[in-house]
């Protein structure tokens, strides 16, 4: 089995806020991330697929095609957007990096070409904080 990873980048704003809690409780749990006026991140997205190399091409997957899928179904939906307000697939979810990684998986998984499997999503919120998701 060979693992192939494509890296993409997007910028987005969000706020961590549980509407069932008071402002004080949100600030206690989420700190600056509960800022009423949002805050942003420069996200790095690693999408890893796995499969056997095609004997005719030597490729696990056409990287250009994978990039187009990631851009169409994820990056164009997220880049320079407010995750809480502008992204339909994040509607009614707490916009944590964990939930965002799961939502990205759900966007990509049905689009992955036949013969290839989505292996993992790694999403960097900051250079020191990232989430990995490998499906359910």
TrEMBL record:
InterPro entries for this protein: 6-PTP_synth/QueD, 6-PTP_synth/QueD_sf
EC top class named in words: lyase
Enzyme Commission code: 4.1.2.50
UniProtKB keywords: Lyase, Metal-binding, Zinc
Domain of life of the native organism: Bacteria
Catalysed reaction, written as an equation: 7,8-dihydroneopterin 3'-triphosphate + H2O = 6-carboxy-5,6,7,8-tetrahydropterin + triphosphate + acetaldehyde + 2 H(+)
Native organism: Niastella soli
Coiled-coil residue windows: none
Pathway given in the UniProt record: Purine metabolism; 7-cyano-7-deazaguanine biosynthesis
Family to which the UniProt record says this protein belongs: Belongs to the PTPS family. QueD subfamily.
One Pfam family this sequence matches: PTPS
This protein's name: 6-carboxy-5,6,7,8-tetrahydropterin synthase
Required cofactor names: Zn(2+)
Taxon lineage: Bacteria, Pseudomonadati, Bacteroidota, Chitinophagia, Chitinophagales
């Amino acid at each position: 089995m060979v693992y192939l990873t494509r890296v993409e980048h997007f910028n987005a704003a969000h706020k961590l806020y549980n509407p069932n809690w008071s402002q004080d409780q949100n600030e206690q749990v989420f700190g600056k991330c509960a800022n009423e006026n949002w805050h942003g991140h420069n996200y790095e997205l690693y999408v890893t697929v796995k499969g056997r190399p095609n004997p005719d091409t030597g490729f696990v997957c056409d990287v250009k095609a994978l990039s187009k899928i990631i851009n169409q179904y994820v990056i164009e939906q997220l880049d320079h957007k407010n995750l809480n307000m502008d992204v339909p697939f994040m509607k009614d979810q707490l916009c944590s990096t964990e939930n965002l990684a799961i939502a990205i998986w759900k966007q990509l998984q049905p689009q992955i070409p036949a013969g290839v499997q989505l292996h993992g999503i790694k999403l960097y919120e900051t250079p020191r904080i990232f989430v990995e998701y490998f499906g359910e």
